[in-house]
Amino acid sequence: ESSASCEVCEGAEEMTEPLKQCTAWLRAYFCEPARMASLPLPAFHHPLLQQDSFTRQVLWTLLRDVKFGEAVSYKQLADLAGNSRAARAVGGAMRSNPIPILIPCHRVICSSGQTGNYGGGNLMKEWLLSHEKLQKEKLAY
């Protein structure tokens, strides 16, 4: 359990609305997960998320279907995205994810239960999974 307090640099008057949404979402993710459901997702304007591709389909499926505190295998996510034989392509989509944490690629693990790789490092992936599991357990009480 973290003893660090949640602080975001002040100066909100200088922030655009999308940045304010992103800041509120990240604060909720790390400090108040129960609030996440009531917050709008920040706008995603990255070109990868605008073009019609399997990567886009996988990332939106992950965002929509794999909830806070859950994990899914690469193969399961391929199934959910409509191509059961594309587990390797799912791995490629995770590597291409332009906004990890917001699109939670850390929730995608190997079928064996091992965490697999993560662009932010495997220790970060393990921490994020542990954070979500702990927070989900707290919310259940």
TrEMBL record:
Domain Methylated-DNA-[protein]-cysteine S-methyltransferase DNA binding intervals: 56-133
GO molecular function: DNA binding; metal ion binding; methylated-DNA-[protein]-cysteine S-methyltransferase activity
Record-listed E.C. numbers: 2.1.1.63
Keyword 4Fe-4S belongs to the record: no
CC terms in the record's Gene Ontology section: nucleoplasm
Annotated catalysed reactions: a 6-O-methyl-2'-deoxyguanosine in DNA + L-cysteinyl-[protein] = S-methyl-L-cysteinyl-[protein] + a 2'-deoxyguanosine in DNA; a 4-O-methyl-thymidine in DNA + L-cysteinyl-[protein] = a thymidine in DNA + S-methyl-L-cysteinyl-[protein]
Cofactor or coenzyme needed: Zn(2+)
Coiled-coil features, chain-numbered ranges: none
Keyword field: DNA damage, DNA repair, DNA-binding, Metal-binding, Methyltransferase, Nucleus, Phosphoprotein, Transferase, Zinc
Top-level enzyme category: transferase
Function: Involved in the cellular defense against the biological effects of O6-methylguanine (O6-MeG) and O4-methylthymine (O4-MeT) in DNA. Repairs the methylated nucleobase in DNA by stoichiometrically transferring the methyl group to a cysteine residue in the enzyme. This is a suicide reaction: the enzyme is irreversibly inactivated.
Name listed for the protein in its UniProt record: Methylated-DNA--protein-cysteine methyltransferase
Source lineage: Eukaryota, Metazoa, Chordata, Craniata, Vertebrata
